[in-house]
Amino acid sequence: MNPSTITALSPLDGRYAGRLAALRPLMSEHGFMHKRVQVEICWFIALSDAGFAEFRPLTPGARTYLLGLVKNFSVADALAIKEIEKTTNHDVKAVEYWIKSKFEARPELKAASEFVHFACTSEDINNTSHALQLKAAREQVILPALDALIDKLRQMAHAYADVAMLSRTHGQTASPTTVGKEIANVVVRLAAAREKIAGVKLLAKMNGAVGNYNAHLAAWPDFDWEAFSRKVVETPEPLGLGVSFQPYSIQIEPHDYMAELFDAVARTNTILVDWARDVWGYISLGYFKQKLREGEIGSSTMPHKVNPIDFENAEGNFGLANALLKHLSEKLPVSRWQRDLTDSTVLRNMGVALGYSVLAYHSMGIGLGKLELNREGIDQDLDQAWEVLAEPIQTVMRRFHVEGAYEKLKEVTRGRTVQAEDLHALIRGLDIPPEEKERLLAMTPASYVGKAAELARRA
Question: Is 216 a catalytic residue?
Answer without folding.
Answer: no
